[in-house]
TrEMBL record:
InterPro entries: MBL_Glyoxalase_II, Metallo-B-lactamas, RibonucZ/Hydroxyglut_hydro. This is Metallo-beta-lactamase domain protein. PANTHER family: HYDROXYACYLGLUTATHIONE HYDROLASE GLOC. Its cofactor is Zn(2+). Keywords: Hydrolase, Metal-binding, Zinc. GO terms for molecular function: hydrolase activity; metal ion binding. Residues 12-180 form the Metallo-beta-lactamase domain. The lineage of its organism: Bacteria, Bacillati, Bacillota, Negativicutes, Veillonellales. It comes from Veillonella dispar ATCC 17748. SMART domains: Lactamase_B (SM00849).
Length: 198
């Protein structure tokens, strides 16, 4: 599996394109569909996965899904965020019309990709982490030496603590590919996360 990563938009949210056997998955099409189409190249995209519903991770969703005629997946508890235009900075003022499929916890097979969906609420109610071939695409739940903020609409700090404790139970060999900034490993973040959850 080849991973192409590019920070996009005002908030530099990481968009990931995973390529395997000529097929690709697009995680968090934040902004600038032109760049995402470049990342996809001549692979054949099969789906868009959203770690959560915040504008910096979804704003190119409609263009990308329309361009490739592919489905998108989002946790049901974040579906309403796609409609809350007034909660977005003016630069993101756009109506989202893509109907996302509901993500459920557990295995999701998409072409050659076996995705394990972990529901990790806190930063938002419908935040998830995607585990794919030893990588954990963690959205805004956990970063290198940081965790997601919980002062947004539908955030919950107690849920975030529960989710972080749950992440500590996953394989320490996982490479964490977060929604912002650089990648890390669960092994390297273990101490930091333990200090936060107490
Ligand atoms: Zn977010
Ligand atoms: Zn973000």
């Amino acid at each position: 599996m080849n991973i192409i990563k590019r920070p996009l938009g005002l908030y530099k949210a990481n968009c990931y394109v995973l390529v395997k056997e000529g097929k690709s998955l697009i995680i968090d099409p934040g902004f600038h569909s032109k760049h995402i189409i470049e990342m996809v190249g001549d692979s054949e995209p099969i789906a868009v996965l959203l770690t959560h519903g915040h504008c910096d991770h979804v704003s190119a969703l409609d263009e990308v899904c329309e361009h490739y005629n592919i489905p998108a997946y989002l946790h049901p508890l974040d579906q309403e965020l796609l409609q809350l235009i007034r909660r977005r900075p003016s630069v993101y003022k756009k109506k989202m019309y893509t109907n996302c499929n509901d993500l459920v916890t557990g295995k999701l097979q998409l072409g050659p990709f076996e995705v394990i969906v972990h529901h990790t609420p806190g930063h938002s109610a419908g935040s998830v982490c995607f585990e794919i071939e030893g990588h954990l695409f963690s959205g805004d739940t956990v970063f290198k030496q940081n965790v997601g903020n919980t002062d947004n609409y539908n955030s919950n700090p107690e849920d975030l603590i529960t989710s972080l404790k749950y992440i500590l139970t996953l394989s320490k060999d996982l490479i964490i590919d977060p929604g912002h900034k650089e990648s890390t490993t669960l092994k390297d973040e273990e101490e930091f996360i333990k200090n936060i959850v107490g």
